[in-house]
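Can anyone check this?
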Amino acid sequence: MMNEAVVSQRRCPSCGKTKILSDENTGELFCGSCGFVITEKLADTGAEWRSFSQDEGNRARTGAGTSLTMHDMGLSTVIGSVNKDATGKPLSSAMKSSIERLRTWDSRTQAHSSSDRNLRQALNEMDKIKDKLALTNAVIEKAAYIYRKAMEKKLIRGRSIHGLVAACVYAACRNTETPRTLDDIAKGINIRRKDVARCYRLIFRELELKIPVPDPLKGVSRIASLAELSEKTKRKAVEILNKARKVGMIAGKDPMGIAAAALYIACISNGENKSQKEISIASGVTEVTIRNRCAGLRTILDT
């Protein structure tokens, strides 16, 4: 594909005409009338036509950025699958087999130690759970950072990769205030809740993580969506929780339990027909917990 070069007032040295064209494939600047080649091997300062990053829309020359979610942080190189030489000519059959063998060994030596293989498998599991639980890139980046810190502290040896990955993802969700429960994480990676909780307590204690207190307001919209409650009920529940926060009743309580109780009281206030059992199923807390939290919230509303 040839385009007219954006060169003002430039003429062909041979015929004197101004029809100057550039060829992107060969890197030549030539005259469109007589074919005289003015310059060879032009340096293209524009964007690349190939993208090596995951974002296909980004065609910048800088390539993919570094990321903690890749075991090599995106700094390693790979032998491409295109069996052509630098000039674009196909490789001979003998050379093709040699390159294929080199490509195989190159991929094998990317993770030569057991810790590298462990990290690669863990980050693959994080990528899977990201899609299952609809997590953002920031959460997985934070989880990868926590897992790398756990490796530095030698907390990985002798423990389940799935359990530690789940614990790191849960810690990242808590850190970024993403509303995901232990049960959600355990179901997403298909292990027992008890195993996730044990690993989470380990990394929380050993890495001295600073985890913010969970906000019950984050769980209101989620429970309301699962229980199919109206927007009016949701706003009423938020109003009740704000009153409870002012008197200091939220501190130390299970956020999902108190959010479920606020929604149940809001349902009664707005005349919406929802049972405690339905809200219990949507929130993942027991009916007894909802009744106990409702008793405390009603005292606030009566005052």
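Reply from J.R.: I decoded it. The first strand starts at residue 2 and ends at 4.
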